[in-house]
Amino acid sequence: VKMERGKFQFAIDRGGTFTDIYAKCPGGKSRVMKLLSVDPSNYPDAPREGIRRILEEELGVPMPADDPVDTSHIDYIRMGTTVATNALLERKGERMALVITQGFRDLLHIGNQSRPKIFDLQIKVPDVLYEDIVEVEERIILHQERCSLNINSDVLVGSTNEKLYKWTKLDENKLRKNLDALLKKGIKSLAVVLMHSYTCADHEVRVGEIAMEMGFTQVSLSSKVMSMVKLVPRGFTGELENFKNIFSCVDAYLTPSIQKYLAGFQSGFDENLKNIKLLFMQSDGGLTPVDRFNGSRAMLSGPAGGVVGYAMTSHNDQPVIGFDMGGTSTDVSRYNGQYEHVFESTSAGVTIQAPQLDINTVAAGGGSMLFFRSGMFVVGPQSAGAHPGPTCYRKGGPLTVTDANLCLGRLLPEYFPKIFGTSENLALDESATRTAFEALTVDVNEFMSSANKSHEPLSVEQVAMGFIRVANESMCRPIRALTQAKGHDTSRHVLSCFGGAGGQHACAIARSLGMTKVFIHKYSGILSAYGMALADVVHEAQESAACHFKQENISWLDSRVAHLSNQCLQELKSQGFSEKRIELEVYLNLRYDRTDCALMCSPVAAKSGNFSKYGDFLTTFTNRYHSEFGFTIPGRTVIVDDIRVRGVGKSGVSVHKNEPTSDGKNQAKSTIQCYFEDGFQDTSVYLFENLSPGHKIVGSAIIIDKNSTILVEPDCIADVTTDGDISITIGGGKVNQVGTELDSIQLSIFSHRFMSIAEQMGRILQRTAISTNIKERLDFSCALFGPDGGLVSNAPHIPVHLGAMQEAVQYQMRELGDQIKEGDCILSNHPLAGGSHLPDLTVITPVFTPEHETPIFFLANRGHHADIGGTTPGSMPPHSTSIKQEGAVFKSFKLVRNGEFQEKGEISLKPKFVISKISTSKIQNYFFSIQGIHLVNELVETYGLNVVQAYMAHIQSNAEVAVRNLLRDVNDPKSPHVVSLNAQDYMDDGSMIKLRIDIDAEKGSAIFDFSGTSPMVLNNLNAPKAITLSAIIYCLRCMVGYDVPLNQGCLTPVNIRIPKWSILDPEETAAVVGGNVLTSQRIVDVIMKAFKTCAASQGCMNNITFGDDEVGYYETVAGGAGAGPTWHGRSGIHTHMTNTRITDPEILERRYPVILEKFQLNPGTGGGGEYSGGDGVIRQMLFRKDLVLSVLTERRVFAPYGLDGGQPGKTGNNLLLRHNGPTINLGGKNSVEVHPGDVFRLLTPGGGGFGSPTPSTGEPPTKQRKVKDDQTFVERGSVFEYTQQQEAH
């Protein structure tokens, strides 16, 4: 963008703590300024104040702070802001109501029904944004060829070419009455979310018209905000927008906050910036005029500028990892010539459908708090924030990463702003930091001495350095995940570092990741602001398609692309861009039929043939699919979900400016003592402002910039580029020898490395799997085991798999012994062999070295397969009485022998219970998980086998310490050493699970004795022994209350006694499918009851299946969570041993022959108490053809208990409403034929209450109370989404 003669250009990032300002002055001079974002005693608005100060200083003309700023010298202002994000986090948006299809009033409360943190008994989910709900009597349904219902409605065609019916007409009179009631409450903002409005928006548009006529000032239509299939995310996104009239959108919840801020900002200038180009950064990395800036596209407004900044300045011939480490969070992203976007993301509990840069907030930053816990060094995730901040901020804050850097001499107080103390004029407090570290060092040495008498005490600096090393390793993990998840080699990237804290860690992180280059821009401290100066103006248009990508649809797709392209062209032309400066990027959102992994694909040039006139999209799709997932599916139909056009108005800003070359050797400002791995070293200190292109700085050195500190570590060399930036070449560094003796610092590092191996194995398996359950539902676990078969690390953590795979590995060691050879992979699923239920197949891979004849480690993965056979589809028969009725059974089957896949392996069972052949095409994908072997070998090559195996044992011992500390806290004053806890509960068939726990509080040990538990049963509620082990580990981890390594050490202090041939240890022929999904929940209920930790949750997974020869569907359904001593139970949520996400209503109706009539909370089903249990749900489906329905449920007879005077939750119910016939109670377990028009109504149990109810607490709460999380940053991005999805089953 050419600067108007003699005018200033401003780019501003208004962050939560600081506001960064970059100004391009007339004549080419650049100015940088950093101000506190909120400083009311000195100025009303930081961006305006920064502009005023720069204008005053550069022009030499007084500009009184109280007067409107003269805008005659301003060309443009570009801004990014956290106002929208803060309003969402703090729930300070506009008062609003939700208008939704009848039967779905609580859909956005339930969401996908999974809980965000699987080990948190107090389930913390942010409040919904609306305060009232209106249900609309209307219904659109999709046409289905296989539907046998008699539908009296004309077939219509939606915008996606899908056929549909207007099943129920819009009741306008009832709607007006309900909307009038909202107006009388003072609510004038609405979000309208109706079923299938992505393809037929008629009803939504009419609701919008009526609302505007009645006087609502802001109305959002989900179909206008983001016309993509999936009701839940579209509904959340719609909450963030506002429908002003039928053709333009502003914000309903967030934009009012933005508008209020903008009004205040603009009022500080002449004529409210009337003739000034005011542009705002959107989450997708593009700028937009202020009047088009809306809430759902503002979530990453500030961080997006940083991505643009490093993309425009760092990328050359190597892909780049952006590493933005600030005070409270660290953002990680990737760029390789194209911005990487996500189109559905979750932030602060809200799922948003809108294009956003894939920015992963993966860890806390300089303010991460430091802990020494159960023998481990722990960094974060809790943050000290700005208030009180680190210890050195003189506000009584905790020790943080910033304090550790200060203690080591890596932060120099004399170059840090003197803004601390009561008068805000003092430097960082080194003495306070050192005093706090001295006290922490005493604790560390006392613990280490108790574990090892010969332990040599650590110095203060060694402890501080330990925390830095652990912090660095914790930040390496998500970077590996971000790159390797998509098949990229992490070591081939450049690390582009920016943000205030990143320069102190960049060299160490790059070295750990195998990178050889670090790039730090001269404006790294304000790169988000600088990125806005470089950014282009963007306008996007998108619509759903829902068609097959085949020749007969190409012309229709081209016409829709042309329509959207014209929208973008006209919009950008209206903003002053000529057609020559506009680039159009065309994308199709493609996926294989019967999969959920859609990829947004741009075309490559078409060589020849019948392609779209815009290019070859299919080649891009197949290449990307193969790159990310390791295979393609030839012959499978490709679906076009969405069409997207991104119009880019090019700014044309040049980022390269050759600075004057140095004419001599640069002199260090000073030399200080800085602490590294080898102790204190002489370290030269340089001022960035004194450096010129050509200068070469050999580490160790510190480069002081105005807004950041850069540490050049030993064996690294920093060069100043021709543009005046810093390029650091990373040397190998000295490798410190690590011994086998326990070292708390190394223990913490190995904990991260072991977990990273398990996580990367999972990524490899997910990328290479064909199975939908593995690839998309991520229903699997990967784990690493020691030479004794003991679990070392299990990631991600799936409750019902915890501990169980260890039993599977150790069974094979006992069964096969020295028959386990290199190149073998062993398949197992039998309960006797450590299995859970038959669909969960476990593949075990031994790891050998040439020097060892026996395995040095084991790798294993367990994944759910729906095609394992049995008497009903889905291998979940409700009436099975023998394991043979549940599918194919394997104890020890060598899937791979001597490196050769046993492709002809065929298993046949008795004729009536047939599975003639296991689908080897799906099982084969497990073979790829043995790539995890090289990850283990890399660790061995780095540290040596003895050290790695020693730390496997140490990490197990650490988990043992954590559990022993928990057991010591269970103390009865009358029996100071031995405490006995007792509990029992019942399955609906009357089977009792009885438990006595004897705790030796002095030793921190316990006996879990299930004597008295009922014998095994002639149904499928029998639970293999491994399930009880998993339930105990899960409960112990929940009660510990913080992250501990989940491995066999958790059970070392526990002696488990289970009576043989009881329901918890049945004979090998017993049916077990219900034990895995139902009895496992009751075991948890009994343990929690014994410890009096919390009331019972719904205690059921509510397993529902339906299908025929053509189609099959399986789901588990949420209920109420139990209340605890300080919290209400969450309503409509999955609890304990499951966390399955539920299929979105629109996807369900698109793929399966059902109509979902209702999915909402069932008020009053949670037990009353001082703290009330959560409510269950009502889920009601109408069938469109003949099918077989199966239900496998519990808590239909015995209610979820309350505790300490709390009332029990209500039991559930399974009802079948025959079309024009009776209502039938199906009981808890049944299989029945259903016909067109029949309705299944599922009522799930509520959670128990806690504490005696009082008049004010007797009724369950109608709304989840707000809970503040002690984690002060909000995780986001594709890595976070993957983890959430992985923990959601």
3D structure, described in words:
Residues 1245-1271 are annotated as: Disordered. With 1289 residues, the protein is an alpha+beta fold. 26% of the residues lie in helices and 24% in strands. Strand 34 (701-704) and strand 35 (709-712) form a beta hairpin. The chain is globular, with a radius of gyration of 31 Å. Mean pLDDT is 83; it is low at 238-252, 905-928 and 1257-1271.
Task: Summarize the structure in short.
The protein is an alpha+beta fold and 1289 residues long. The chain is globular, with a radius of gyration of 31 Å. The model is unreliable at 238-252, 905-928 and 1257-1271 (pLDDT under 50).
The class by helix and strand makeup works out as alpha+beta
Number of helices: 26
pLDDT averaged residue by residue? 83
Please give the largest β-sheet: 8 strands, mixed
Task: Choose one word for the global shape.
Answer: globular
Percentage of β-strand residues: 15-25%
Name the poorly predicted regions.
Answer: 238-252, 905-928, 1257-1271
Q: Quaternary status of these chains?
A: single chain
Cα-atom Rg, whole angstroms?
31 Å
Q: Biggest sheet: strands side by side, in what order?
A: 22-17-16-25-26-37-36-33
Instruction: Give the total of beta strands.
Output: 57
Helix proportion: 25-40%
Q: In whole angstroms, how far apart are the ends? A: 50 Å
